[in-house]
Design goal:
CATH class of the largest domain: Alpha Beta
Radius of gyration: 33 Å
CATH topology of the largest domain: BirA Bifunctional Protein, domain 2
CATH architecture of the largest domain: 2-Layer Sandwich
InterPro entries: aa-tRNA-synth_II, aa-tRNA-synth_II/BPL/LPL, Anticodon-bd, Anticodon-bd_dom_sf, His-tRNA-ligase, HisRS-like_core, HisRS/HisZ, HisRS_anticodon
Oligomer: single chain
CATH superfamily of the largest domain: Bira Bifunctional Protein, Domain 2
Low-confidence stretches: 1-16, 19-47, 347-353
EC number: 6.1.1.21
Number of strands: 16
Number of helices: 18
GO molecular function: ATP binding; histidine-tRNA ligase activity; identical protein binding; RNA binding
Protein name: histidine--tRNA ligase
Catalytic activity: tRNA(His) + L-histidine + ATP = L-histidyl-tRNA(His) + AMP + diphosphate + H(+)
Mean pLDDT: 86
Shape: elongated
């Protein structure tokens, strides 16, 4: 017995010795038989992989500023997208697509202070590239490159901004843009863009909203009459644009201390930019002793009067507010600008207090000319729907209402109450698919009928087709309404028509 134990121990030690050599070569570890025995029992997290690389402890997460979208969220998003696209198409827009990245020089100098948020990529084959920041600049590059002078287009795609992630703010997100490019009579395309914004927000039923309207020319005229140097216009506009989020005293301090605007200029400016109202405000500014002497401002005011007239015809003035705090920080705007906000409370003392911007846009007449070799200008005006914020609001409303969201569009489940009918179910399923019916089966040879019915209830499938030996002999099927549990027999020839009638 002692001899046997000795031989067993020697054999084990030999095996351990060989294993130790392998481990020492592969990982510079395993310096003892004790360590080797552990290696036999467990795979080390840092052991070499099949390709000779060390495995790391992988942290499963999405990159900062991005997020996964689950099936229920996708169902809500598709509903929102359908509403938006239907509106765009109702107004005669055609669709285009542009690359997700552009030459860096295309994007440079178009976004003012926000340019620091552009994602730059490494040199790719001799080209300096950046991820697109929005859909507007790529659109105008497309117009200039293809020498297009007139188009009404929409585009829905993801854009990228190296912003600080926060609740509802991402680094990768969708934009939904509608733009009208071409030479037209004043304010007609602009009025249609505002009408589209009004229609979409009304149809989505997100709550009460307000569309704030201003004109960059009016703002420039006011800055001029208040004595602000033209070289400071862009940086002052970026400060003014913060007034819906930051108290005036902080904006005032920023203009004086950081942007070196004299206090008397800032105070004079505050008398104008804090104003908002309807058509009467436009009339008041037109009669203002200082503003009325500025040709640029008066040109803007005359266009805003005309715009208001068209908006009256379109029936949207109940949601329009002329607001001089609206500046839109992007450099490329040249005329009318607008922004839609959801209101926190209808009874609010200040109607401009909202839950945040959900759509914005304006006129940008010079951007195409920046790309054209001959400086050829193509006037443009457009809107961008803040679709990510709308998604969040729609998802929250759905949760609060307890609404049951269907994540599929399946019309019917092909089921059986008897075993050994998989092939018959597959034949019937094929016939339905070929007829354009959205149908499923359960992936089991012999599923229980109760299991199949429970599946329909949990996924919202409205109809079940039940087949069995007798139904196959008679050339019929049973259609069961999942909600009412009512069953009827239908011939196979009339099955597709009956399903369409019940699910239309």
């Amino acid at each position: 017995m002692a001899t046997f134990i000795c031989r067993y121990t020697s054999g084990w030690n030999l095996l351990v010795s060989q294993r130790t050599k392998v481990c020492a070569t592969a990982a510079n570890a395993c310096h003892s038989i004790q360590v080797t025995r552990k290696v036999f029992a467990h795979q080390d997290a840092t052991a070499q992989s099949f390709y000779g690389e060390k495995k790391q402890n992988l942290v499963l997460k999405v990159p900062k500023g991005t997020h996964d979208v689950h099936p229920k969220q996708m169902a809500i998003r598709e509903k929102v997208f359908n509403t938006v696209v239907k509106c765009f198409k109702r107004h005669g827009a055609e669709s285009i697509d542009t690359p997700v990245f552009e030459l860096k020089e295309i994007l440079t100098g178009k976004y003012g202070e926000d340019a620091k948020l552009i994602y730059d990529l490494k040199d790719q084959g001799g080209e300096q590239l950046s991820l697109r920041y929005d859909l507007t600049v790529p659109f105008t590059r497309y117009l200039a490159m293809n020498k297009i002078s007139r188009i009404k287009r929409y585009q829905i795609a993801k854009v990228y901004r190296r912003d600080n992630p926060a609740l509802g703010r991402y680094r990768e997100f969708y934009q939904c843009d509608f733009d009208i490019a071409g030479h037209y009579d004043p304010m007609i395309p602009d009025a249609e863009c505002l009408k589209i914004m009004y229609e979409i927000l009304s149809e989505l039923e997100l709550g009460d909203f307000l569309i704030k309207v201003n004109d960059r020319r009016l703002l420039s005229g006011i800055l001029t009459v208040c004595g602000v140097p033209e070289s400071k216009f862009k940086t002052v506009c970026s400060s003014i644009d913060k007034m819906d989020k930051v108290p005036w005293d902080k904006v005032r301090s920023e203009m004086i201390e950081e942007k070196e605007i004299r206090p008397e200029m800032v105070d004079r400016l505050s008398e104008y930019i804090t104003l908002n109202g309807g058509l009467s405000l436009i009339q008041r500014l037109s009669e203002d002793p200082l503003v009325s002497q500025n040709m640029v401002a008066m040109e803007a005011l005359n266009d805003l009067k005309l715009l208001h007239r068209y908006l009256e015809i379109f029936g949207v003035t109940d949601k329009i507010l002329f607001d001089l705090t609206l500046a839109r920080g992007l450099d490329y705007y040249t005329g009318v600008i607008y922004e839609a906000v959801l209101l926190s409370d209808k009874s609010s003392q200040n109607p401009t207090v909202g839950l945040g911007s959900v759509a914005a846009g304006g006129r940008y007449d010079e951007l195409v000319g920046m790309f054209d070799a001959k400086g050829r200008k193509v006037p443009c005006v457009g809107i961008s729907i803040g679709i990510e914020r709308i998604f969040s609001i729609a998802e929250k409303k759905s949760e609060e209402s307890g609404e049951k969201i269907r994540t599929t569009e399946t019309q019917v489940l092909v089921a059986t109450a008897q075993p050994m009918f998989l092939e018959e179910r597959m034949k019937l399923l094929t016939m339905l698919w070929n007829s354009g019916i959205k149908a499923e089966i359960m992936y089991k040879n012999n599923p229980k009928l109760l299991t199949q019915l429970h599946y329909c209830e949990s996924t919202g499938i409205p109809l079940v087709i039940i087949i069995g030996e007798q139904e196959i002999k008679d050339g019929v099927v049973k259609i069961r309404d999942v909600a009412t549990r009512e069953e009827v027999e239908v011939s196979k020839e009339n099955l597709v028509e009956e399903i369409r009638k019940r699910t239309s």
